[in-house]
Design brief:
Elements lengths: L27 H8 L5 H12 L5 E6 L7 H5 L1 E10 L4 E9 L4 H14 L16 E7 L47 H29 L8 H13 L4 H8 L3 H7 L2
Length: 261
């Protein structure tokens, strides 16, 4: 009897990928090659303009940091920033990711929150006054549908509410969008203290801007000392520093101190 031999692969034998015409776009290497290189810029610009459907027309893009080290290796996926300029010269940011489907809504909000919160300038923030650049998230997901969305739709346009269905995308974290990303290492108590002090500083700047716009444009420009005094009194009730009030009104610190009596 002739001995039979088996040609079946050993269960532990390493499988090699089969040759193919096109690379799999949902592999990190392929994703970055297709969308995150200088050579692929025209492809990404064309894709983004198609998705915006006339709401914006991008003419230039610049790549930011390619990914957030440490997180992507553990979670799977690729994330990079794209700094865009449209035909009108407006600037905005797009986070592009090939993401893992698990906890997608939470992940989407996390990355968008990071891009928003990182816009807060370091150091002197007096002139910032919450002037935020728009942020969009472009996520590529494989074999995945958002809950409450038609399975036949391959493109989902989400803006906290679905433009097509009107269903709320995610509501409870919206008020935290500006604080989620950068403060992860702080304890809740430290975060509250930092946020409170930072808010007071920004609010003081906004009060000054409002006072200058509503009062000083008409008052001080016309040399009305009385108007400057009224503005100074208002700022004193807000516990604004005397140096700042003096700079905003043109009054001396001695004059301002006399208003406190």
């Amino acid at each position: 009897m002739q001995e039979q031999t088996s040609t079946a692969a050993h269960p532990k034998q390493k499988r090699e990928p089969k040759p193919t015409t096109f690379i799999d776009a949902f592999v990190d290497f392929s994703f970055k090659r297709l969308f995150a290189t200088e050579e692929s810029k025209p492809i990404l610009i064309g894709l983004l303009n198609h998705l915006f459907k006339g709401r914006k027309y991008i003419t230039e893009i610049e790549y930011g940091k390619n990914e957030f080290p440490g997180e992507i290796a553990q979670e799977g996926g690729a994330v990079f920033d794209v700094y865009c300029t449209d035909v009108n010269g407006s600037k905005f940011i797009i986070e592009v990711q090939r993401g893992n489907q698990e906890y997608f809504k939470e992940r989407a909000l996390f990355y968008v929150s990071r891009a928003i919160s990182e816009q807060a300038p370091k150091g002197d923030r007096k002139g910032w006054a919450y002037k935020l650049t728009e942020v969009y998230l472009l996520a590529f997901l494989e074999d995945f549908n958002l809950p409450d969305s038609p399975k036949s739709e391959y493109v989902q346009d989400i803006c906290l509410a679905n433009r097509h269905t009107g269903i709320i995308f995610y509501d409870k974290e919206f008020d935290q969008l500006f604080t989620l990303a950068n403060y992860a290492s702080l304890t809740p108590e430290e975060r509250d203290m930092y946020n409170s002090s930072l808010k007071r500083k920004w609010d003081n700047k906004n009060v000054l801007d409002y006072a200058a716009k509503k009062g000083l444009e008409q008052g001080l420009q016309q040399g009305e000392h009385k108007k400057a005094v009224e503005v100074a009194k208002t700022l004193l009730t807000k516990n604004i520093d005397l140096n700042i009030i003096s700079e905003a009104t043109g009054l001396s610190q001695e004059e301002i101190q006399s208003l406190q009596k």
